[in-house]
From TrEMBL:
Pfam family, one: YkuD
Descriptive protein name: L,D-TPase catalytic domain-containing protein
Keyword Transferase: yes
Positions of the catalytic residues: 121, 137
Residues annotated as domain L,D-TPase catalytic: 22-161
Keyword Cell wall biogenesis/degradation: yes
Domain of life of the organism encoding this protein: Bacteria
The protein's annotated pathway: Cell wall biogenesis; peptidoglycan biosynthesis
One GO location term (cellular component): extracellular region
GO molecular function list: peptidoglycan L,D-transpeptidase activity; transferase activity
A GO biological-process term: regulation of cell shape
Length: 162
């Protein structure tokens, strides 16, 4: 199977916000994040997605939202912890080394609802990559999110699709 995705898939308003020609497309059905430069794919990475399939409907539904977003901040998350509510308590390094926060305004999501806390980030559980394992974020191998961080900037457009 040949998959051809390009920067033209992103809406022109989103593309105009970023001048280096870099864009990201997350293809949920393939558990893959593609990086494009001027419409040509330059990188692809396996990812983990929300535990539940489909588009995000409400906060806490463990779904990864569909839509056109932008990276609003790139944060050092080496020391962050997260309690997944599984009785194990706070997990050090839960987000890996980097947390690339996405804007998820109601005008950007397919559902027309605004979400908070959606990001592309690393992991404490490398075996989860390629599965439905997150609370809605896009989880990557730590070395992959390190690589991605060197390519993208605040303002990079991100499309999440089926």
């Amino acid at each position: 199977m040949v998959l051809v995705l390009g920067a033209d898939m992103l809406n022109p308003t989103t593309k105009a916000k970023h001048s280096r020609g870099i864009s990201i497309v997350v293809k949920k059905s393939l558990f893959t994040l593609f990086v494009y430069k001027n419409g040509a794919m330059i990188e692809k990475y396996p990812v983990a997605l929300g535990k539940n399939s489909g588009d995000k409907r409400k906060v806490g539904d463990n779904r990864t939202p569909l839509g056109d977003f932008t990276i609003t901040s790139i944060e050092d998350s080496h020391t962050w912890e997260h309690d997944f509510g599984d009785g194990k308590g706070p997990i050090p390094g839960a987000y890996g080394p980097w947390f690339l926060r996405l804007s998820t305004l109601a005008t950007e999501t397919r559902s027309g609802k605004q979400w908070v806390g959606i990001a592309i980030h690393g992991t404490h559980d490398e075996a989860s990559i390629g599965t439905r394992a997150t609370e809605g974020c896009i989880r990557m191998h730590n070395e992959d999110v390190d690589s991605l961080k060197r390519i993208v900037d605040v303002g990079t457009p991100v499309r999440i699709e089926k």
